[in-house]
């Protein structure tokens, strides 16, 4: 049975699962689907097009599936998909998609801290940590296990690799490849995220290979030459293939 405050509004067409807690002053619009065991603290807004999984907690002032801040948006039918087991803190704003991709997606087991903004058509993976007041423009992709500190500004269309650590106060408009530490303004490569990789169970051998891959990649003035050096000198483990694929498919170029 759902527990819905008398001071909350739930549209009659909204679809709720079981055992959800809807606090006072929450607003749940039509064309929304909410799974089971979610907690909406006070003053949470679930806008048109939201698709929410199970076991999420939304803190005061969060706004999910907000109308995109994109002048090209013409009211098309789009969604915002939230997975499972996420903690979405105070005043987080997540926009729904536009005609470009049709949806904004947040995966599972993510922590989005206070005042984070995620714009239209972003695709976020699983096990992400995003610090207070960090802002993502439209169509940003973030791979699994990335840690993005507070006050970071991310340009539209950027791709952030898995297992990265981005230092607080950074601003960037290029892609950040996996497994690295990046920071400062303008953002630059600071080395491999060794502590983070150890915490995630990467072996010493895998970490050494990742380090060697970036040593070779950044030793050349032209990225394609660095990729060739990696192919010629390192075994193609899953980690090495991920790095090469990420770099070769980068649309905005990678940080240096």
Keywords, separated by commas or semicolons:
27% strand; 16% helix; 4 helices; 256 residues; single chain; alpha/beta
Kindly report how far apart the N and C termini lie.
53 Å
Shape: elongated
Helicity range: 10-25%
The main sheet comes to: 11 strands, mixed
Average per-residue pLDDT, rounded, comes to 97
Over the alpha carbons, how many angstroms does the gyration radius reach? 20 Å
| Total of DSSP H or I helical runs spanning 4+ residues | 4
Stretches where pLDDT is under 50 for at least 5 consecutive residues are none
Indicate the structural class.
alpha/beta
Q: How many distinct beta strands?
A: 28
- Beta-strand content bin: 25-35%
Secondary structure layout plus pairing:
Layout: E1 3-4, E2 9-10, E3 15-16, E4 21-22, E5 27-28, E6 33-34, E7 39-40, E8 45-46, E9 50-52, E10 57-58, E11 63-66, E12 79-82, E13 87-88, E14 93-95, E15 103-106, E16 111-112, E17 117-118, E18 123-124, E19 129-130, E20 135-136, E21 141-142, E22 147-148, E23 153-154, E24 159-160, E25 165-166, E26 171-172, E27 180-183, E28 188-192, H1 194-199, H2 204-217, H3 223-233, H4 238-248
Parallel strand pairs: 1-4, 2-5, 3-6, 4-7, 5-8, 6-9, 7-10, 8-11, 9-12, 10-13, 11-14, 12-15, 13-16, 14-17, 16-19, 17-20, 18-21, 19-22, 20-23, 21-24, 22-25, 23-26, 25-27
Antiparallel strand pairs: 27-28
Helix pairs in contact: 2-3, 3-4
């Amino acid at each position: 049975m759902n527990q819905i405050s008398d001071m909350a509004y739930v549209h009659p067409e909204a679809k709720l699962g079981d055992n959800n807690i809807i606090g006072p002053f929450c607003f749940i619009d039509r064309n929304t689907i909410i799974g089971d065991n979610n907690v909406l603290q006070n003053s949470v807004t679930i806008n048109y097009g939201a698709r929410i999984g199970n076991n999420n907690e939304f803190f005061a002032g969060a706004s999910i599936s907000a109308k995109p801040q994109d002048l090209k948006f013409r009211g098309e039918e789009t969604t915002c998909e939230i997975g499972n087991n996420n903690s979405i803190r105070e005043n987080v704003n997540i926009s729904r998609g536009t005609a470009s991709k049709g949806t904004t997606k947040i995966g599972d087991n993510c922590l989005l801290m206070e005042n984070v903004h995620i714009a239209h058509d972003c695709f976020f993976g699983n096990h992400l940590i995003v610090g207070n007041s960090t802002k993502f423009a439209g169509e940003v992709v973030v791979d699994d296990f990335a840690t993005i500190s507070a006050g970071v500004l991310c340009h539209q269309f950027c791709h952030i690799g898995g297992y990265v650590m981005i230092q607080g106060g950074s601003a960037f408009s290029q892609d950040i490849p996996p497994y690295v530490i990046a920071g400062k303004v303008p953002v630059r490569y600071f080395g491999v995220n060794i502590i983070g990789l150890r915490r995630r169970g990467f072996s010493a051998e895998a970490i050494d290979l990742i380090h060697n891959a970036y040593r070779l990649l950044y030793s050349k003035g032209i990225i394609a030459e660095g990729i060739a050096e990696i192919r010629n000198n390192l075994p193609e483990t899953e980690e090495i293939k991920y790095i090469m694929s990420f770099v070769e498919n980068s649309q905005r170029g990678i940080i240096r």
